[in-house]
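To close the chapter, one final illustration. This time we ask the reader to focus less on the individual chains and more on the assembly as a whole: which components sit near each other, and how the overall shape emerges from the parts.
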Amino acid sequence: MIKALFKKEFIDTIRDKRSVVAALFGALFTPLLFAVMMTFNIEKARSVDDVYIEINNADMAPQIVELLDRESIFHAELPSTGKKFELNGETHTHSKISLTFSDDFESQLSSGLPANILINADYSDQERSSQIRRVKRVLENYEGAVLNMRLVARGISPLVIDVVDLEEQDTSTPGSKSAIILGMLGVFILFSVFVSSTNVAIDCSAGERERNSLELLLMQPVSTFDVVASKTINTGLFGLFAGTLSIALTAVVIPFIPLHKIGMAFNFDLEVAVKMWFIILPLAFFAAAFQLVTTFHAKSFKEAQTYIQYSIMLPLIVPMALEFSKYKHAALDYLPIVAQQQAISKLIRGELTDFTPVIGGMIVTMLFSYGLVLFTSKSLKSEKVVLGL
Amino acid sequence: MLEVKNLVKKFGDVEALKNLSFSAQDGQITGLLGPNGAGKTTALRVLYGLLKADDGVGVINGIDSQKDPIGARKEIGIFPDKFGLYERLTAREQIAYFADLHGLVGDAKMQAIEKVIKRLDIGDIIDRRCAGFSQGQRMKVVLAQSLVHEPKNLILDEPTRGLDVMSTRILRDILIELKEQGTCILFSSHVMQEVAALCDKVIVIADGKIADEGTPQELCERTGKESLEEAFVTLIGSDEGIAA
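The assembled structure is written out below.
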């Protein structure tokens, strides 16, 4: 019976342009959004913004000005009002930092005495502080270079002023660095599974009731369980279809993201893709069962659309809530959504070696889905739900 | 054979059915006549086992629909008050789906579909999607899907609403033909002429109770009125909700 019911559901959905377009949109949107966001972030992280400061008495220290120039710190007159000013026809923002070399800077320097530089800026401004730090770093580097030369000129090794030999080793590998950002990818793929099946879920429940065919169907000799199960399978398949497409597209898109520019690497090969597919498999049906609970209990198509928006948020809210509550328990790792989200993020980091929580999570997710289907089929025996009262 | 005994159904404080009992015999057309809101559709929904009665039973060919709704529904064909066609399916897919739901498979299913297509003369629209169908075409598809499994009982809920003369005639001819073949037909309506012309027995429902039952002629005689409409108004005590 489920086969006959499912066949009709499938034909009905595949001919519904809105459902198909929504599923495709859900599948294509997430990897593309991810690629755009990643590329944008990488470019932003790499590029050093030009800083405009006011340099007074610049001819006192042409070497420093040149060093500043190399670090993209340029001179510009303080604008009389606000921060904006025009340069070569373009509008720039002034940092409102001013650097003043004292009138005796050159003579003090050449006679080996402290030469005064005045930095004038608003230190409380968070945005300014990194720019101030950049300016100071240039000055410190210059000071260090001059100091070394003075020591050498006096026949002293510069090593005597190196009290501590601080060695820094960054153990983050390119792979683990990218995992932080790519961790988002897992959430994106889970999200696409949830988004893509929403329209199918609404159409075959609240939609069918609105078109008067649900009541007639329930008057036929079929059990409500078979009806709900077939609708869940159909809805889940659309979510799974979108998830599959989403994974495939991610595999295509990742090589185009300039991860190497920030020293990252991510090998999204067939094995990763297949594992990921198995992880989202039960989740697609869980999403479908969950959405059908909400849409069958809504009084109309419109109401169902309102409710379902919140179900889309689940893959974002559940992991976030656990993160914030700091509540840790081994059983939580087996919960639907949590299990999949953790499995995917481990998979991306290349740390998925223990498959027990993955398979356990899969079974628990399927059991939850079955429970939801039972609940919906039970509520379809209530007149409130059948007639939308 | 359809029977409801002592049905009581409440929706919150509203008592929709107040101890309602009636039966419909095989080889007869039984009309369920009543004004809007009298409880006709509610009574039928309880009979299908779609709604739970607060008290009483609905029996279809000896099967209690409250206890075994699926078994009881196998014995009936339903022509609903709102057609509820799947707009994206073709008429053939629609009818085949209902054949599936009634457990028909393989050659038997194919033959049943072909038979009902011929009987209702819908060969020209059978492979078109239902989305653009006229009301008359819809009626035929709905009738075909309710008859594809050749049920012993046929229940129609206000079947002629919104139909033109030609469609009404086709429906009427088929009902008479089915009756002659021994099918038990129960149909609810508030169209007097139709009930007077078709029904062997009329059950008048008002306010969730039986107001009277008998042949159209008996009802006229008992109330001392010339027409069924006048008799009906006398029985229910007001002229509210009658389509002329």
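The first helix of chain A runs from residue 2 to 14. Chain A has a mean pLDDT of 85. With these observations in hand, you are ready for the problems at the end of the chapter.
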